[in-house]
Structure formats: C-alpha cells, structure tokens
Amino acid sequence: xxxxxxxxSLSQPPEYRETPGLILTNPxxxxxxxxxxxxxxxxxxxxxxxxxxxxxxxDEDPFLQVQQDVLNxxxxxxxxxxxxxxxxxxxxxxxSPELASARSDLESALSSLADDLADLVASVRAVESKxxxxxxxxxxxxxxxxxxxxxxxxxxDMHDELAKKVDAGDLPDPNAFAIDGDxxxxxxxxxxxxxxxxxxxxxxxxxxxxxxxxxxxxxxDDMGRELEEQREMLEEVDTVADRVGGRLATGVQKxxxxxxxxxxxxxxxxxxxxxxxxxxxxxxxxxx
Length: 288
Known about the structure:
InterPro entries: SNARE (IPR010989), Syntaxin-6/10/61_N (IPR015260), T_SNARE_dom (IPR000727), Tlg1p-like_N (IPR048036). Keywords: Coiled coil, Golgi apparatus, Membrane, Protein transport, Transmembrane, Transmembrane helix, Transport. This protein is mostly helical. The protein contains 5 helices and 2 strands. It has helices at 32-35, 62-90, 97-127, 138-163, 181-287; strands at residues 38-42, 48-52. The protein has a two-stranded antiparallel sheet with strand order 1-2.
C-alpha cells in the first residue's frame, strides 16, 4: 500500500503547521498521560486521524478536563483579585509589601489562566467549522464559545485593574490636610457645640425616662392601696359570713327542736282519738 507523498509517517513526528479547521497538538488539551498513549496524524487534505491506543474507551473529552482546570483556577483567582483591590484601596504607599505580594499572586494566577484559556480558544476554533466531525453538537460548540468568552472577559477585567498602578506621586500630600489655627479653633468649637447638643438631648431623654418611671411608681402605689382595701373588705365579708353562719345554725337547731316537740304532741292526739273511736265501736256493738 502506497502512502500519499504529503502524508507523514507514523514513526516520525509530523510537521505541524496552521491549517484551517485543524487543532494543533497541545499538552493541555492532551495531557502527558494521554500524549504517551495517543498520536495525532495530520494529512495534507486538512483532516486528521487520531490513532489512540487507550486501555479504556470511556476517557473524558480533553476540552472538559482543561475546562475544569480553568474553572478551578478562576475560583482561586477571584479571592486573590478581591484581596488585591482591597489592599490597593487601603494602601497609601505604592511600594507597600502587602500590595506587591497581592499583585504578584494575582499576576501569577492570571498568567496560568491565560495559557489554559488560549488552549480552549484554539480548540473551539478548530471544531466550530465541523462540529459533527468531532462528535459535538452545535449547542455544545456554542456553550464552549460562550464559556471562553465569559472567562476571557473576566480575565481582561482583572488585567485592566492590574494596569491601574498606584503611584506615589498620585497620592495626596499629607500636609494638604493640615488645619490652620483658626480652623482648628472653629472645629473644636463646633465639636464642643455638638457634644453640648448631644448631652442636652440625652438629658431630655433621661428626664422623659424619669417621668415614665415616676408614673409607673405612682400606678404601682395606687394598685397596692387598692389591693389593701380589697383585702380589708374581704376580711369584713368573711367575718359577717361567719356571724350569719352561726345565726343560721342556731335557727336551724331551734326549728329542729320545735319540730320534735310538735311531732310528739300530734302522735299523742292521734292515739287518744283512735282509743275513743274503738271504745265507741265496742259500745255500739254491745247495744246492737
């Protein structure tokens, strides 16, 4: 089988050149663990054949691996960027060690991010013309383009902030804030007046609190007197109730005595009447 004259041999490294629709071999898109088991062969017709000698057929897309690395680096770079902005806003010295350290850490993180982002951009450009050839859908290609655009825009914003250097000459002269004697006297008088007004307001608030406490105390005294009067009234009612109860008990005893007496008298009368009736009946029987 004859090989095309422009097709490189598998035993020799290919001559890489930028060709529309091609993605160049990149150690980030193809990590060392993959590069040792993969070889990319570029043909003269603008296509490439991938000869992969992998132990598993379920390896992840290299783009997704680099994408995850970029997202992790962005998550680490954002706190560094926020710390740099905070230190820069509080720093009065352009040569501050804290500012220099924060700037160095942020620049190092952005440098690594820029390299990885460049690989992602090159990968997207290579597959956007014929995504089906690489097993990608148009929606996936659009998502990848949007991802690299958003990350790139955020990195550009960070670079713009880094470009705003803090120069010692731009800082205001501390002597410019010096206050002359008259102004200082006026300021002291103003401060004293403000303090007097605050003290007067506090006195008014304290007077109001004192009046409120006095009102509450008077109300408590009134409630105490009312409770004492009610206690005395309850004692009087209790005494009257005891007296009435005693009288009622005496009256009940008298009624019971009268009833017993009446019961004895009535029974005697009944017996006498019955005896008289019996005698009368006997007499009548004897006569008749």
